[in-house]
Write a structure and sequence with these properties.
Layout (H helix, E strand, L loop, with lengths): L6 H15 L7 H25 L2 H13 L8 H6 L5 H13 L3 E4 L2 E4 L2 H9 L4
Antiparallel strand pairs: 1-2
């Protein structure tokens, strides 16, 4: 459920779990959380670098979309006011950059962070 059954995330987690537990052991929720924490720690330098290399307006919008999970009407007044963004044109410009760099994705008029581990890392670091 955490990763909407996206197999690449599941494979990554299962590989870490396998290396942590060995063959044939039962997995617990705590072990799953430990595996995810391990992945976030191992990826931390990369995510930090990517995050702080984003232009400020993209970074702020990226955080807003991460907070929402699935964001709609991101150029609308309600979203802009809720997340203290500048203007619709500023959001539109930042949105274009984030989409071009594949930091976010759009499906059925909803925006979300493309790399779910990146979104978890932001939460892990207390940035959202």
């Amino acid at each position: 459920e955490r990763f909407n059954a996206v197999t690449s995330y599941m494979h990554r987690i299962l590989n870490v779990l396998y290396s942590m537990t060995g063959k044939g052991e039962n997995c617990t929720v705590a072990m799953l959380d430990d595996a995810i924490t391990y992945i976030l720690n191992m990826s931390s330098d990369t995510y930090e670098s990517l995050f702080y290399q984003m232009p400020e307006k993209q970074r702020i919008l990226f955080l807003a979309i991460t907070r929402e999970g699935k964001a709609t009407s991101v150029t609308g007044g309600k979203f802009i006011n809720k997340h203290k963004l500048n203007s619709a044109s500023s959001v539109n410009s930042a949105l274009k950059g984030l989409l071009e760099k594949d930091f976010i994705t759009m499906d059925k008029n909803r925006y979300s962070v493309y790399d779910q581990f990146f979104a978890l890392w932001l939460k892990f670091k207390g940035l959202v």
